[in-house]
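Reviewer comment 2.1 asked that we show a complete input and output for one of the modelled complexes. We chose the NDP case, as it is the one discussed in the main text.
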Amino acid sequence: MAKIALITGATAGIGLACAEVFAREGFNLILTGRRLDRLEQLADKLNKKYNVEIAVSSFDIRNREQVIENLEGLPAKWRKVNVLVNNAGLSQGLDPIQNGNYDDWDTMIDTNIKGLLYVSRIVSNWMIEHGKGHIINLGSIAGKEVYANGNVYCATKHAVDALNKGMRIDLLPHGIKVTAIHPGAVETEFSEVRFKGDKERAKKVYEGFEPLVAADIAETIWFVASRPAHVNINDLVIMPTAQATATNIFRQ
Ligand code: NDP
Ligand code: 8X3
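Response of the prediction step:
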């Protein structure tokens, strides 16, 4: 029977690239995100290309009732999730703390921390029932360092780092692997979302050096997910070669 991967935030960027890689590797997929049209198009494409089964589940990860209703509403066969990629996340704004936008703060905290928790609460119980599983959390270099004006985004990713460690301890008796992937600069829709649609400002983030692309992270996630049963990669930081720290990027 084919294995199952549940990927949150599969409508764009890293999540979308993970969907492609896991489908290529023969996994059936549960794909989530708010943009249902994108999920349906992706499911159709991957189903035709790789002949895998795909369930799409569209909900706002910030809304606890929606998360529970949608995931618990999936047919029973989808509960045997082997790999959960907790990828949905975002940054909003880049402001000093004294000028921070309250709504941006709520959005980041509700998405990156609370949304990840809602999904993990449900899927970790499915994994316990199933007797195995692997949770892969998308942290960030922002979860390892703090940079100017990154305050709340960095705090949410530090929280993901802590939750990753906490989950590994709590799920240890159940044989469930828990891994965090912490990327540096990856060119996706991330900066466009951070700068609220300002494409020019977003483009500048990746100017003068070769950033990572979503497929680099997806292939790394696949590497982590495909280790033998007795091996777990706890924590992995991955950067473009031109980046040394969150803020130290060599631009030419
Ligand atoms: P993208 O903006 O390209 O994709 C983000 C994904 O998250 C989309 O599929 C989006 O789906 C989903 N998402 C956002 N908010 C919600 C929500 N409220 N409910 C459901 N889904 C949501 O960004 P990336 O692919 O770059 O980011 C993926 C993860 O990687 C994030 O956790 C990010 O913090 C992390 N990361 C990114 C880095 C980068 O440089 N790009 C570096 C380090 C970490 P939709 O809008 O359809 O709901
Ligand atoms: C995304 C990378 O450096 O913009 O998490 O925080 S960074």
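Residues 4-238 form a domain with the Rossmann fold fold (CATH 3.40.50.720). We note this here for comparison with the apo prediction described in Section 3.2.
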